[in-house]
Amino acid sequence: MADDAVGRAAAVEVLRTGGIVAIPTDTVYGVAVALETPGGVERLFHVKRRPPDKGIVLLLGDAAQAGSIGIIGPAAAALGDAFWPGGLTVVVPRRPDASISAALTGGAPTIGLRVPDHPAPRALAEGVGPLPTTSANVSGLPEARNAAEIMAQLGEAIDLVLDGGPAHGGPASTVVDCTGDRPEVRRVGAIGVDRVVAVLDAAGIAHELGSWHA
Fold this sequence. Notes:
Number of helices: 7
CATH architecture: Alpha-Beta Complex
CATH class: Alpha Beta
């Protein structure tokens, strides 16, 4: 279905009933399932043939959803304020009272969160809550660039494809681990380390990123 109001409403209904939806994002297409779906995350891993020891991120409708899932400290809050929506993933401790499948985090007590710079995943997350999302491809194969490639790789395993045209592409999100006393960059992507450092410095947050390099 087209990525418009009708298509997004249909996608929300599919997610609410436990289905898997392929969605455009600000980088590549992703496949998503509602967080509350029993066995939903495990189904995502099965569809992608992804190793179960690799956690996946949650895409959020807005920054306010982050606190329902993770413990948002000063560093994560400052970085989210500066770079969301956008290409930043923060890794934070997951809330003990949050209903999260162990499969989502690979068994770790942490969770990756991002507000994407694309209206489609934000709209779906606003409709059903934070969305476990991973790239729309079989593990080991190239990332699908459009709806046709998604169907070629994943086919009937997907209940609905929200067709937003060719994927935007570009670098993956920068990942900053905010679980310890000092933030650490785990992956450099769309947001340069210098920009992360500037935000942390402005917020008075201690870090050791001055000499960091890829």
